[in-house]
């Protein structure tokens, strides 16, 4: 069967919006970890990008550091769409096989989660997959075209291991079927690690007994003899479960084909997970796996990586309870370049909140502006130049900090023109259109609707129709109900706007 991306060829997958008018052609350049430099993006098929992003391990709530990675994938995807590529995006859900140490040792993260909550592993997987999807929706992350679970693809993973076995890349030891990394000439090319030499940087010094090379990794782990696992499957090698890396290779190949365009993850995936995905995929097919490998740096707290094991993590839910808005959190996460470490502070989040509120006020202000002036050519030129500046910054390896400075410049110049009374109706239209266009990538300006519970939104609509029908007493009653729900409704030229009480 052909992979779905081919069957859907020619269809715009994710965003239906047309691409804004571009004045100059600026190629999209992305930093490819494989060659350690920025490269102009070239697709395998004309204008179609097949994208694979490593998804969450669903044993607990995602922390905001994990979510930084998903906001980065979203910015990448929106940038691709903005550049008029079609995108076919696949993301996995790891619901089995990810052990607490990346080097195949320790407990299964999923079983650990189940023990903690006295639930079955299947319940844990279902609950946290749903929680993850809710979190990403709150952050305005466009969902992947295919979201696939490891446990739904055991057959594909076993078939891939069989293929590797036929080609002589595997061996069996006490605890499972392993991949022999010394059989591949270029093992470790992504991270610059050699199979025979030393350990992978960052990996723990625990090595399964019988492994031929320190970098060899499990393809299939056998269930322990003395304990029944909740998730286990029969295979020709024995009852067990897949190693963590094999799911991504098997599912990427199923949905995107053996060779596709872009593969993404966090920087922690470079030395182990992605290195091993490349090894097993290229060993099986003899083809390069993905052309571009993009990695997002860590979110830190007080100078340390945010992680569950260090206990220094915040969840999206936790930050929302502290009163930060969804879009301010998204804005904060996207405001640092994805290849730099970002430090999470409450001050930083407050500042993001203020900046966004300033931008929304600006949009409200100019929407309701009564303008009688002539068209201001200089401002017109600034607006046009801003579009070019935006694209230049975006296409320079997704330089969002530069993108934001382009936006603030438009705001500054427009405010100046307003103060000097030198602004025409067409200027206002152009500025609004440009900001809307930029927001197709940023996804923060028109984001308010998703923050408010549906029933509060319904109240706002009811109040609007009461007001329009001049039923002011009724409208006022509804306003009070909205206030009781914790929201203040303000009437602006762009319609009613809600802010947290
Ligand atoms: P996991 O659910 O542990 O498989 O992680 C999901 C994604 O989050 C992976 O791509 C990780 O690389 C990424 N990640 C984990 N911790 C952080 C962090 N502190 N900052 C940014 N990304 C992270
Ligand atoms: Zn993966």
Structural features, described:
Helix 6 (246-256) crosses helix 7 and helix 11 (377-395) packs parallel to helix 13 (425-442). The chain contains 16 helices and 16 strands. Helix content is 43%, strand content 15%. It is globular and about 80 Å long. Strands 5-4-3-10-11 form a five-stranded parallel sheet, with helices on both faces. The longest helix has 22 residues, at 346-367. Helix 7 links the parallel strand 10 and strand 11 (290-296). The protein has three domains: 4-38 and 47-296, Rossmann fold; 321-442, Orthogonal Bundle (Isoleucyl-tRNA Synthetase, Domain 1), CATH 1.10.730.10; 454-500, no CATH class. With 501 residues, the protein is of the alpha/beta class. Residues 54, 248, 273 line the site of zinc ion.
Helix content: 40-55%
CATH architecture of the largest domain: 3-Layer(aba) Sandwich
- Radius of gyration of CA atoms, rounded to a whole number: 25 Å
Instruction: State the CATH superfamily name of the largest domain.
Output: HUPs
First-residue to last-residue Cα separation: 55 Å
Strand order in the sheet with the most strands: 5-4-3-10-11
What ligands can be seen in this structure?
adenosine monophosphate, zinc ion
CATH class of the largest domain: Alpha Beta
Number of DSSP E strands:
16
Q: What is the total number of structural domains? A: 3
Sheet with the most strands, sense and barrel status = 5 strands, parallel
Outline, from the CA principal axes? globular
CATH level-3 fold name of the largest domain: Rossmann fold
Uncertain spans, ≥5 residues at pLDDT below 50?
1-20, 201-205
Mean pLDDT: 89
Beta-strand proportion: 15-25%
């Amino acid at each position: 069967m052909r992979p779905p991306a081919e069957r859907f060829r020619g269809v715009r997958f994710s965003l239906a919006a047309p691409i804004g008018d571009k004045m100059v052609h600026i190629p999209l350049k992305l930093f490819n970890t494989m060659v350690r430099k920025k490269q102009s993006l070239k697709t395998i098929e004309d204008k179609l990008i097949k994208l694979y992003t490593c998804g969450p391990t669903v044993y607990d709530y995602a922390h905001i550091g994990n979510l930084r990675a998903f906001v980065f994938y979203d910015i990448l995807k929106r940038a691709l769409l903005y550049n008029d590529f079609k995108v076919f995006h696949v993301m996995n859900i790891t619901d089995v096989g990810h052990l607490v140490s990346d080097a195949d040792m320790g407990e299964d993260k999923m079983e650990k989660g189940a023990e903690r909550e006295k639930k079955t592993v299947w319940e844990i997987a279902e609950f946290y997959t749903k929680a993850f999807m809710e979190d990403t929706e709150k952050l305005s992350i466009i969902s992947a075209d295919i979201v696939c679970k490891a446990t739904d693809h055991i057959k594909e993973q076993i078939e891939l291991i069989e293929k590797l076995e036929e080609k002589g890349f595997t061996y069996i030891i006490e605890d499972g079927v392993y991949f022999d990394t010394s059989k591949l000439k270029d093992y470790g090319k992504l991270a610059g690690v050699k199979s025979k030499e030393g350990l992978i940087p960052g990996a723990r010094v625990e090595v399964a007994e019988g492994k031929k090379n320190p970098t060899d990794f499990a393809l299939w782990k056998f269930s322990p003899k003395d304990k029944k696992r909740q998730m286990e499957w029969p295979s020709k090698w024995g009852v067990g479960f897949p190693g963590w890396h094999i799911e991504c290779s098997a599912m990427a190949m199923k949905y995107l084909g053996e060779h596709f365009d872009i593969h993404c993850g966090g920087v922690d995936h470079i030395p182990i997970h992605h290195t091993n995905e490349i090894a097993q995929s290229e060993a099986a097919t003899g083809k390069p796996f993905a052309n571009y490998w993009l990695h997002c740096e860590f979110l830190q707290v007080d100078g340390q990586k945010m992680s569950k094991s260090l206990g220094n993590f915040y969840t999206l839910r936790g930050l929302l309870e502290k009163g930060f808005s969804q879009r301010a959190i998204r804005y904060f996460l996207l405001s640092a370049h994805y290849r730099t470490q970002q430090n999470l502070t409450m001050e930083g989040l407050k500042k993001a909140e203020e900046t966004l509120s300033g931008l929304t006020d600006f949009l409200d202000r100019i929407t309701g502006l009564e303008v009688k002036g002539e068209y201001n050519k200089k401002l017109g030129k600034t607006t046009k130049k801003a579009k070019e500046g935006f694209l230049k910054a975006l296409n320079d390896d997704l330089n969002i900090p530069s993108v934001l400075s382009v936006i603030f410049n438009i705001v500054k110049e427009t405010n100046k023109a307003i103060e000097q009374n030198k602004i025409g109706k067409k200027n206002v239209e152009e500025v609004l259109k440009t900001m809307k266009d930029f927001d197709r990538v940023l996804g923060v300006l028109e984001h308010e609707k998703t923050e408010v519970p549906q029933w509060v939104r319904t109240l706002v609509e009811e109040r609007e129709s009461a007001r329009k029908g001049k039923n002011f007493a009724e409208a006022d009653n509804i306003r009070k109900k909205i206030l009781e729900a914790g929201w203040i409704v303000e009437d602006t030229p762009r319609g009613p706007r809600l802010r947290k009480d």
